[in-house]
Design brief:
This protein has 133 residues and is mostly helical. It has one domain. It is built from five helices and no strands. The relative contact order is 0.17.
Length: 133
């Protein structure tokens, strides 16, 4: 029963993580228009996503080792949610600085969530790629 709940939880967070990313990406045209960004400005905004990911990858192993995969996922999901909220507030205020400053850490936390999920998924018995699968 515990393994089944773990599989459902991991699947649900993967789904929500994908939804959070898709909701951000679908807003890129609105970000461009609302913040009056040039194509270069949009490119820098998108570059922040990559920078957040590159920063998170080397840190993720140490964070998952220290907190455990479950706590990493919870902390990353909470931070991602807060980052999306602050980003939305920055967009509503028309603040390029707020949106730019939240894009990088939001992607960092999204990546940490994904890494934590991957480690957690590997620990769930009977899952493809899991300990006994």
């Amino acid at each position: 029963m515990r393994a089944e709940r773990a599989k459902v939880a991991v699947s649900a967070v993967f789904l929500l993580n994908g939804f959070a990313f898709a909701s951000w990406v679908s807003r890129v045209p609105a970000l461009r228009d609302t913040l009056d960004l040039t194509p270069g400005g949009v490119g820098l905004l998108l570059l922040s996503l990559s920078a957040g990911t590159l920063l998170a990858l080397p840190l993720s192993g140490a964070i998952v080792s220290r907190l455990g995969s479950g706590r990493t996922v919870l902390a990353g999901a909470a931070a991602t949610s807060i980052g999306l909220l602050v980003m939305a507030m920055g967009l509503g205020a028309g603040s390029v600085v707020t949106v730019e400053l939240t894009t990088h850490p939001r992607q960092l936390t999204t990546t940490l969530t994904a890494i934590g999920l991957t480690v957690n998924h590997a620990d769930v018995p009977d899952s493809p790629g899991g300990d006994d699968g």
